[in-house]
Amino acid sequence: MEIFYLGGYIYVQTLNMKHLSIEMGAIAALALSLCTSFSPAKSEFATTPGSSGVSGKFDKPEKKALLMSRSEYYYWYSYPGNVYEGYMPTSLEVYDLEVELQTDVDTDPSGGVQIANGFIVYGLPHIIWPSVILFAHY
Q1: How far is CA 56 from CA 38, 50, 118, in A?
Q2: Are 58 and 106 in contact, with CB atoms under 8 Å apart?
Q3: How far apart are CA 52 and CA 62, in angstroms?
Q4: Between 61-68 and 90-101, two packed helices, what is the crossing angle to 10 degrees?
Q5: Residue 14 pLDDT class (50, 70, 90 cuts)
Q6: Whether residue 35 has pLDDT greater than 80
Q7: Are 115 and 85 in contact (CB under 8 A)?
């Protein structure tokens, strides 16, 4: 840091930052492309063999068991209406809705009516799409 006097004023000159080199930009671009080029593995729900995906109901008990074994916690809001229901795992929300509505509840949209959205971020308005959408099959 340099301090100098010029025309009745005191000036302070700080050290200038060096420009980002082209090598650092290339490394950052390479890291970004490598991190985004590989897609994650498909969910067990999408790859369950023998599932038709047409009926809207669970055609195999293991699909229901997979859904009920999920332990990720979400902020749940009813749909439509966006009323906050609580912070709980998917399995507990599915159980609560099945008891309340007396019908099957799952994440399969075919033949179902959307009843709840699970978000990883709390608050309104929602700044992201829901992570989990639950459907009731009447």
Answers
A1: 31, 14, 20
A2: yes
A3: 14
A4: 120
A5: low
A6: no
A7: no
